[in-house]
Amino acid sequence: MPAFSLDHFDLYSAHHVPESYTWPSSYLHDHPSAGDGGGGGDSIPIIDISSPTAVSLIGAACRSFGVFYATGHGVPVDLLDDVEHQARRLFALPLHQKLDTARRPGFISGYGRPPLSAFFPKLMWSEGFTIAGGHRRDVAGDIWPLEQAVFCDVIEKYNKMMKEMAGKLLNLMLLSLGIDQEEAGRAGLIRDLQEAMEVLQLNSYPACPEPEKGIGMAAHTDSGLLTILYQSRGVNGLQILHKEDEFGPTRWVTLPPLPGALVIHVGDLLQILSNDQFKSVRHRAVVSRAEHRLSAAYIIGPPGHVKMGPISKLMQYGQNPIYRSVTWPEYLEIRAQLFDKALELIKLPIK
Ligand SMILES: C=C1C[C@]23C[C@@]1(O)CC[C@H]2[C@@]12CCC[C@@](C)(C(=O)O1)[C@H]2[C@@H]3C(=O)O
Ligand SMILES: O=C(O)CCC(=O)C(=O)O
Ligand SMILES: [Fe+2]
Fold first, then answer.
1. For the chain, domain boundaries
2. DSSP label at residue 308
3. Atom of ligand 2 at shortest distance to CA of 201?
4. Which of 116, 162, 217, 235 to mutate to test the pocket of ligand 2 (most atoms within 8 A of CB)?
5. Strand locations in 114-220 (E)
6. Which of 209, 216, 218, 342 could tie 285 with a disulfide, CB 3.0–4.6 Å?
7. Atom number of ligand 1 nearest to Cα 335
């Protein structure tokens, strides 16, 4: 038996948004949206990561937005379609079957609400399935006696491609900070990506009869080095919090799904590593009245034993390190207690 169960309200056939899923409008509208309907995504850089100009464009995007669209990544569209298809089939299973794989206390993988749900009194209009590297067959094994092999094959293939792409991206990001591979290796960074910790978070956001009352995923930053996000076609949902200039307002900017493009988020560990040169991006997912939306967030971090701190090469111009070093598991532990105050907690006293 799972250690917890979701309540039995069926989001997929709902005609109203119950109290438990109704968020205070002060929370939902805490910042204005850029343009009508929360547009403004056209300001987010679209970068061909195979181009020779990628390094400087990525550096600029990570500094000003903490997010960009990546094209030229080489991930076949067919594979993206397969991941979406498998995710749709998974979420279409009867609740009792999905609950057989419910995330158990102390575990990362499993079906249920994403862990950040614990920090909010209201429920999010979504369900998720988390697959931590290495546990894929264990987790999917129970629910799909006949067809789980197909699901696992697709997920494994996708994770493999994501890991390769994350390696390329990290390299480009570090180069844009003036860190070459040798220095990255000395800093204990991912030289051998095989060991990296990876998490694939599949999210399902059913159509919501009163989208102005609910939220698909509450505002947060991702805690790893970087996230590669796939969004299903044709439905908006992802928004980032962005401040255009020092004196302008902070706004929610929608990032519509662009055909063939993947969204790259800077995570907290990269903010730490870059000593605040890159900012981890605060983002959320809103829901649609008419459309069921899916997303797949591939979050990668260093091997569990590797301490991440500001890279010393960046201190050469008299800057002081802003953060103390932590491993990803240590940082997740702090996040599990403090959620979005975690970065503050690992700040070093100002010299
Ligand atoms: C390793 C992890 C990162 C994550 C928490 C988790 O234990 C498993 C899922 C990840 C995820 C995905 C949705 C958003 C997020 C904030 C959450 O609640 O669960 C992230 C977590 C994170 O990046 O810290
Ligand atoms: O669905 C989305 O667009 C966002 C998902 C997300 O932020 C996450 O899984 O961490
Ligand atoms: Fe996220």
1. 14-345
2. B
3. 9
4. 217
5. 127-132, 197-205, 217-220
6. 216
7. 24
